[in-house]
Amino acid sequence: MKVIEKIQSLQQDQGKVVFSFEFFPPKTEDGVDNLFERMDRMVAHNPSFCDITWGAGGSTADLTLDIANKMQNIICVETMMHLTCTNMPVEKIDHALETIKSNGIQNVLALRGDPPHGQDKFVQVEGGFACALDLVKHIRAKYGDYFGITVAGYPEAHPDAIGDNGLATPEAYQNDLAYLKRKVDAGADLIVTQLFYDTDIFLKFVNDCRQIGIKCPIVPGIMPINNYKGFLRMTGFCKTKIPDEVTTALEPIKDNDEAVKAYGIHLGTEMCRKILANGIKMLHLYTLNMEKSALAILMNLGLIEESKISRSLPWRRPANVFRVKEDVRPIFWANRPKSYISRTIGWDQYPQGRWGDSQNASYGALSDHQFMRPRARDKKLQEEWSTPLKSIDDIQEKFKSYCLGKLRSSPWSELDGLQPETKIINEQLGKINLKGFLTINSQPAVNGERSDSPSVGWGGPGGYVYQKAYLEFFCSREKLDALVKKSKSFSSLTYVAVNKDGDLVSNIGLTSVNAVTWGVFPAKEIIQPTVVDPASFMVWKDEAFEIWARSWSALYPDGDPSKKLLEQIQRSYYLVSLVDNNYMDGNIFGVFEDV
């Protein structure tokens, strides 16, 4: 979806404030891993979009393209990619545009770009463009209306037009405004400004733009002050005016990073309050790849709450233009959404409204990609899951500890900690894990909870949500037989169980798709975003069993007794999917009593 369309849609809600984040490509692999972890947390607060910069002189072109792809398709946030003219002949520009188009990205921030490293002035590369205006014209001419094009606005004029006294002449300022209008007239539909610290200058800039006929939205770029030296470096590079009161406030605390950061949050909050009070309901936060200051400003403004992260669906809705209407998924990948996305990325169509027609969809084969983890998460697994295992009791204790929140990581989860709804049933989960039913996925029964409930809500306010209780676990054949026998006394239970080799035990057919989550909302059809699909379960089981080897036993050296124990469980245990279809007064845990 184009950002301009998203902004226009959101602003139909009077008083709605639209906010977004900017990131830049880190220099190391660890930095990239950490950035994705940070993005995941920040995107949970529902920014309207996020953008990723293009390194000076095109130095990070390939990395920017890769990060943009993952932002759109794995992090699932509407992504805008910067694209500059520096060192970019038209062939490279078109390659970048074709790449992001094929990845479902529709948004570009078109820039001239800074001079290449080691040079003082921008030089047009042979076969390239001289300015952002030429780039905007090219994108519109070649790609029509596919891309939403954003351009930069400079409240104090472009740095090249600012003199040694820190000011642009009135003529230079007016020329800069006229050039901005030419970019908009050529096809740009959104303006994001360079950083500023004098809010009055920004408000004057907006008014000046309107006076010359620029009608598109103008989004203020807010850069929180995180440390004094970085602040001076950035304002010096951009030739940004520093108000006297800011200099006065920073001078006595400039050597105290925490005090500077606290002041930066205060200043950013007050700037945003003044902007919002003047009727501009958009904020773009230059994060510098740091989350605390940006989120603190939004919290101070009442735009986000840590305890109330809203969800349009029980899982994060895709941003990719090819799957933006997707609204149904099998529950099995609830804790591994990135794996699900990577295994379904080649589908021609994505299920909408109901799962039925997707039963025969072909999932991508398992590859190393499904088992790759960010280094920080790898380290956490190593710390929490590589202790010696002497018996099955030790394994059961691990699963119990995770369900009780004593461990933050799990080999079967890409998430940091438990889903909020799991805390409703974590004591019961702990008990059945100690009985040898090793749970990796679950949800409690829900009967008409408000859709803005902090634990089980989704879809926004005004609706009601429902869930059938669900458990997914590994257990021995002996325990499975006992459970099957006892389940005959629980008529509302349906189950599918399978071992690594494909031996199947079930009381339903492989085509019996079961909606286990649904919502009722005003003026809408019933939404059923989560299903139990036995055919997909047979695909998921290969991944679930492989995790025993790839993600857990791999933490131990060859020949280690702990590794041998885990391999034995992988070979002999069954994976079980259990649903209690009585969501009103059922008791899915009752079947485990006396087993």
Automatic annotation (TrEMBL):
<dbReference type="InterPro" id="IPR003171">
    <property type="entry name" value="Mehydrof_redctse-like"/>
</dbReference>
<keyword id="KW-0520">NAD</keyword>
<comment type="subunit">
    <text>Homodimer.</text>
</comment>
<dbReference type="GO" id="GO:0035999">
    <property type="term" value="P:tetrahydrofolate interconversion"/>
</dbReference>
<comment type="pathway">
    <text>One-carbon metabolism; tetrahydrofolate interconversion.</text>
</comment>
<keyword id="KW-0560">Oxidoreductase</keyword>
<dbReference type="Pfam" id="PF02219">
    <property type="entry name" value="MTHFR"/>
</dbReference>
<dbReference type="InterPro" id="IPR053806">
    <property type="entry name" value="MTHFR_C"/>
</dbReference>
<dbReference type="GO" id="GO:0071949">
    <property type="term" value="F:FAD binding"/>
</dbReference>
<keyword id="KW-0285">Flavoprotein</keyword>
<comment type="similarity">
    <text>Belongs to the methylenetetrahydrofolate reductase family.</text>
</comment>
<feature type="domain" description="MTHFR SAM-binding regulatory">
    <location>
        <begin position="311"/>
        <end position="593"/>
    </location>
</feature>
<keyword id="KW-0274">FAD</keyword>
<dbReference type="InterPro" id="IPR029041">
    <property type="entry name" value="FAD-linked_oxidoreductase-like"/>
</dbReference>
<dbReference type="InterPro" id="IPR004621">
    <property type="entry name" value="Fadh2_euk"/>
</dbReference>
<dbReference type="GO" id="GO:0106312">
    <property type="term" value="F:methylenetetrahydrofolate reductase (NADH) activity"/>
</dbReference>
<dbReference type="GO" id="GO:0005829">
    <property type="term" value="C:cytosol"/>
</dbReference>
<dbReference type="Pfam" id="PF21895">
    <property type="entry name" value="MTHFR_C"/>
</dbReference>
<dbReference type="GO" id="GO:0009086">
    <property type="term" value="P:methionine biosynthetic process"/>
</dbReference>
<comment type="function">
    <text>The probable reversibility of the MTHFR reaction in plants suggests that they can metabolize the methyl group of 5,10-methylenetetrahydrofolate to serine, sugars and starch.</text>
</comment>
<protein>
    <recommendedName>
        <fullName>Methylenetetrahydrofolate reductase</fullName>
    </recommendedName>
</protein>
